[in-house]
């Protein structure tokens, strides 16, 4: 039998956490033959709710779940973890300026970076979900210099999956037959969902999305804005932000990172740019006019090839 993998979820008492931890415990993230031990971190005001989530995990009697650590102590939460999914953070509230949210998140991500750097398992893989995801990932990278930059990523897979979903709806094909969209830019409304290399598996073989859609106006207009603004549309409809789709995409991100993508398929992840794809290496200074300690836009997404 395989040794259990320790998976940390921060902000585990929140709505994404509530959708995510049962997926991990069922094997959606790491495979149905991979036992897991869940580490859940939240802040003291959420401690009771966090304990309630732990009670439900026990009640669900997941065969793969070999243990649960539920804590408000970052060091205890980070100790020995192989995978860290950072969902906790300070949300932007009405009337708050972006820089106020930034300074709160800088202190949160600085402390959690140190806890991970000192106590996580070697080669721990980190996925930042909490917004601003790209910037929080950069902060974590800056304050955990001994963790290789390539092990620190942020979630843009939800945008990638949203783009696949829109193409599948437009063409009335199965979403599993659509592949190789790319999300460039930040996880924000400035992102660019790119269909120029995307294909659909048809009875007559793989066809480019552009050839099948035959509607460049839609592809260059409504498709892009729908993907860019999907988060806002979900909030409008649900009165809550995306949770099940974010949790599912976080599982997809880690699964493909650890287990690889199918031959000929790539996916989008936010990574620290090494200069690939003609994207400038290192932090981008596009938004330095916003007063924060660190440049924004710093972790640039790229498609991940199977071999990486
Ligand atoms: P919730 O407010 O439901 O949950 C957040 C949880 O984090 C709460 O339980 C809170 O107590 C906890 N928390 C706050 N500070 C913490 C700290 N210092 N350490 C540990 N836990 C802490 O938000 P939810 O809807 O679950 O969203 C979580 C984050 O995901 C938000 O920042 C949100 O903006 C972001 N999202 C990112 C997406 C992406 O694609 N990158 C999409 C979905 C989502 O909007």
UniProtKB/TrEMBL annotation:
Residues bound to substrate: 92, 98, 131, 162
Matches recorded under Pfam families: Ldh_1_C (PF02866), Ldh_1_N (PF00056)
Keywords: NAD, Oxidoreductase, Tricarboxylic acid cycle
Reaction catalysis annotation: (S)-malate + NAD(+) = oxaloacetate + NADH + H(+)
Annotated ranges, domain Lactate/malate dehydrogenase C-terminal: 156-282
GO molecular function, a single term: L-malate dehydrogenase (NAD+) activity
Binding-site residues, NAD(+): 11-17, 42, 105, 129-131
EC numbers, comma separated: 1.1.1.37
Domain Lactate/malate dehydrogenase N-terminal per the UniProt entry, residue ranges: 5-152
One of the protein's GO biological processes: tricarboxylic acid cycle
Active-site residues annotated for this sequence: 187 (proton acceptor)
Family stated for the protein in its record: Belongs to the LDH/MDH superfamily. MDH type 2 family.
Name the record gives this protein: Malate dehydrogenase
Organism this protein belongs to: Citrus clementina (Clementine)
């Amino acid at each position: 039998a395989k040794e259990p993998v320790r998976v940390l979820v921060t902000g585990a008492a929140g709505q994404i956490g509530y959708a995510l931890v049962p997926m991990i415990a069922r094997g959606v993230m790491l495979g149905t033959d991979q036992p897991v031990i869940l580490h859940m971190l939240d802040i003291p005001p959420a401690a009771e709710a966090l304990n309630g989530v732990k009670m439900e995990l026990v009640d669900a009697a997941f065969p793969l779940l070999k243990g649960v650590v539920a804590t408000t102590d970052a060091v205890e939460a980070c100790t020995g973890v192989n995978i860290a999914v950072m969902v906790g953070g300070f949300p932007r509230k009405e009337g708050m300026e972006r820089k106020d949210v930034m300074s709160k998140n800088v202190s949160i991500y600085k402390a959690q970076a140190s806890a991970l750097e000192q106590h996580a398992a070697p080669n721990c893989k980190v996925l930042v979900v909490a917004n601003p995801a790209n910037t929080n990932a950069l902060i974590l990278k800056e304050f955990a210099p001994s963790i290789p930059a390539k092990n620190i990523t942020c979630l843009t897979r939800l945008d990638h999956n949203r783009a696949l979903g829109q193409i599948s709806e437009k063409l009335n094909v199965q979403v599993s037959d659509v592949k190789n969209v790319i999300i460039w830019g930040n996880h924000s409304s400035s992102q660019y969902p790119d269909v120029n290399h995307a294909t659909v598996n048809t009875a007559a073989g793989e066809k480019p999305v552009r050839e099948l859609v035959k509607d460049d106006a839609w592809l260059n207009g409504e498709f892009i804005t729908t993907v860019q603004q999907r988060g806002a549309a979900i909030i409008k409809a649900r009165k809550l932000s995306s949770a099940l789709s974010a949790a599912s995409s976080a599982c997809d991100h880690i699964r493909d990172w650890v287990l690889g993508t199918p031959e000929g398929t790539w996916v989008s992840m936010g990574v620290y740019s090494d200069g690939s794809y003609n994207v400038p290496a290192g932090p981008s200074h596009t938004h330095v006019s916003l007063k924060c300690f660190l440049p924004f836009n710093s972790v640039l997404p790229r498609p991940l090839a199977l071999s990486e």
